[in-house]
Amino acid sequence: MKKRLMLGLGASFLLFASVPFFAARQEKKHPAWTTDWVSMPVPEAAPATLHDTCLQIIRDSTLYNENWDTLPQPRFWRHAMRIGPDSVIVNRASNRQILGYMTTDFWNGKNKKEKKQYEDSIRSRYGMLSSEEIYFTTGRSHFYRFREVLPQIDEAIPMFTETNVDPWYAQSILLIESPGRLEFSTDGAYGAFQLLKGVARDMGLVVNDSVDERAEFDRSACGAARLIHEICLPYTRDICREMGLSYREDELWFRLLVMHVYHAGAGNVRKALRKSPPRKGGPEVILGLWKTDHRRFGNASRNYSQIILAAQMELFEILSQEGIRCPGE
Predict the structure, then answer these.
(1) Exposed (0-12), middle (13-18) or buried (19+): which is 15, by Cβ within 10 Å?
(2) What global pTM score does this model have?
(3) Which is nearest to 27 in space by CA: 38, 43, 39, 40?
(4) Tens digits of per-residue pLDDT, 209-247?
(5) Nearest residue to 286 (alpha-carbon basis) of 302, 274, 298, 308
(6) Which residues pair with 195 in a beta bridge?
(7) Which end is more exposed in the chain, N or C (fewer Cβ atoms within 10 Å of the end residue's Cβ)?
(8) 3-class DSSP state of 55
(9) How far apart are CA 70 and CA 63, in angstroms?
(10) Domains along the sequence of the chain with CATH
(11) What is the pLDDT of residues 61-91, one digit of tens each?
């Protein structure tokens, strides 16, 4: 059955896609060390149709109109999403510039002293300061299973719309928090929308020794929509007003700021912004957060909006590569 729904979301629109499910990418084995990404393209996905259902997907053209797709941070995470856990991306911590690759076994086989020597050799090779941090990031293709979460996005869009919450938030959360699985995070968040126990209860979900409604998609979606509507959006508006930042709620940077509040909490986001106050509303607000390290707004918090951008672009790439259309379109 074909579903149709159009939303007034500024530069966003719903992309109706007849979305088959496809086999996972075949992982390419990398040599122990290389600095040439171009010579190691990621193989195309091979189609293996299991379903033929017309699904609703939100596409935000400002990802490309505002050149978010050209920034090194989301580009880095797109690479990480395409590479398996048997590979490590060596990257500059300050801007996620990719310096090279190695196998996970190669890196894990070194002791602490050898790793330090190896890091120093990389700094020397690239003319980096001795204090400049280098990250060794394992591939994440096993975690970001975008095709498997598409039916959940389709299901969540009307739920968020009915509660007057921009469904872009539902799509973003589902793409990156726990795509295609039900797992607990290290801090106890659970469900498709990764709600903490106390937050879920505050949003009206039952969570006790015998019942955990975070495992139920509908209840989890309702809780997340309510959290964004009652907590994240009001606090984000307050932060912008306090700092004199003009905004529209359909602007991508504002949505990303809301997502930072969803992930790190309003207090931590406010403190991070105050460390290097932005002068005006716009993408500069988010770019500034990517460079900010403030107590409980650390690496995971900085990465959050970068990963959202990367995941949205990967989703659109999948749809574009496959030439997906609804039957009869």
Answers:
(1) middle
(2) 0.83
(3) 43
(4) 899 888 899 999 999 999 999 999 999 999 999 999 999
(5) 302
(6) 190
(7) N
(8) strand
(9) 9
(10) 146-322 (1.10.530.10)
(11) 899 999 999 999 999 999 999 999 999 999 9
